Amino acid sequence: MSDSDDEYIAHASDHDLDEILEDDDDVDDDIDSGPAASSASGPRRRRAAAGSSAAATAAAQSSRDAKKKKKGRGGAEWEVSRTWESLVESADGTISATVEGLLEAGKRKRLLRDTTPLQRGIIRHLILVLDLSSAMAEKDLRPTRYLLTLRYAQEFVLEFFEQNPISQLGVLGMRDGLAVRISDMSGNPTDHILAIQSLRPKDPKGMPSLQNTLEMARGALFRTPTHGTREVFIIFGALLSSDPGDIHKTINTLVADKIRVSIIGLAAQVAICRDICARTNNGDDSGYGVALNEQHFRELFMNVTTPPATTVAPTPTTTKEETKTSQTTTSSLLMMGFPSRTLSPTTTPTLCACHSKPSRTGYLCSRCGAKVCTLPTSCPCCGLTLILSTHLARSYHHLFPLMNWVEVSWRRAARKRSASCFACAVGFPRVPKQFSGGEQEGAGEEQGEGEGETVKGPSGISVSGRYECPVCECHFCIDCDVFAHEVVHNCPGCQSGVVQQLQQQQQQLNGNGNENGVADEMDTG
Q1: Whole-number mean pLDDT of the chain?
Q2: Rounded distance, CA 505 to CA 128, Å?
Q3: Looking at residue 135, what DSSP letter applies?
Q4: Minimum mean pLDDT among 357-361, 398-402, 409-413, 419-423: which range?
Q5: Where are the beta strands (DSSP E) in 54-197?
Q6: 487: helix, coil or strand?
Q7: How many CA atoms lie within 13 A of 374 on its CB side?
Q8: Is this prediction's pTM over 0.85?
Q9: Domains of the chain as residue ranges with CATH
């Protein structure tokens, strides 16, 4: 009589065989660790145990060989990466240096971006759509998708108006197959944050509807001025959409109205979401992303704070000259008002034109004299855009972003003799002795070309802990690098006049290393 188990294993695949043998190996380990009374059985059982142990040994060997082959051909992204094996202990027996290196690498990865100056729409009209359906009750993102989305949404509102102070924002929700209005289009972040906080006691329920939400967002953006961008940003946690009609007709209307759509998925990729992002962004589907974890979700969330680049949809009959002409003709001047804050000369408060609330302070429109509470806003009477000069200056860095700082090698650090950060004066690591003579020795041994002082472009973390501005050549630490690129958007060295001082020193030299007016020594013999 044949053994059915043997017949099944013989016809199984190699992958299934490895799993079965691994399970047998675990079972044999449990048998070997059992009580000694099991060894008192008859010789037949002992022979069976010996045979099974031999089979387990062979199975373990084959499993190890299979894992080596799998490792050799390269694993998939979802496989275990065994990051704990990459940790290296320092001289004092701790892993703090490795952890600091990983944190620094994460900061640099976030900073390294394309700094090419592009035409961007700095006056934005954005509709934020939150998924309030039952799919947001999942706990794969802690504490839940719903609560984490509400928290990140509040942070997004603050960061959005910090990076885009002259823009407008509105918030919608998807629940029970309907689109609900959470807050109207406004430039006041406090109104949106309070509206989002009011959703916290409620529970997510029902199904989402992309079509109803896109139609409501299109209606909210329909009367926005043409000089600003029209965008819809959706947080989508479900895998389906309960739509009353053909959503492709809605997509066609979005394309006709020049409304861009960006989507962040919390579950998996959905074909209709990718189609929406691609068709509303001239074929570019980079606006659709799926969050892997909490940190990645926040990165995708905050990436939307950067204004999108202005693009022109190409047509089959359009030439390069016509495209260039269309880009130049679409740009036009925009009239804005810069009112000053005023205080009522009397103790009697007056009503504002935007909310009809009594107040003594406010801003008077520079065209019609109407009083508004806060800036930036549009005048309710004449429609003039009212902002402050600081708002326009804060939006300017999107058009001309700060250049990425490059890593500094030990030889470059020895030549520049930088001992501390130019901005915060924090001490740098000391230059090793083998690099201390960088001025006299040939510097072709370091990475890069030429004198090997700096690498050509930013690629990662710096071995010397220094980062150099390509313009002023000042050295900074990683924290100042992050602060300058994410908050200030200006280089402290360039703003301090170091470049002008170097240029003046070069102008005072006569080309021979001497100052102007000082004659060179001549050998008269």
Answers
A1: 78
A2: 53
A3: G
A4: 398-402
A5: 124-131, 168-175, 178-186
A6: helix
A7: 10
A8: no
A9: 119-303 (3.40.50.410), 337-394 (no CATH), 406-508 (3.30.40.10)
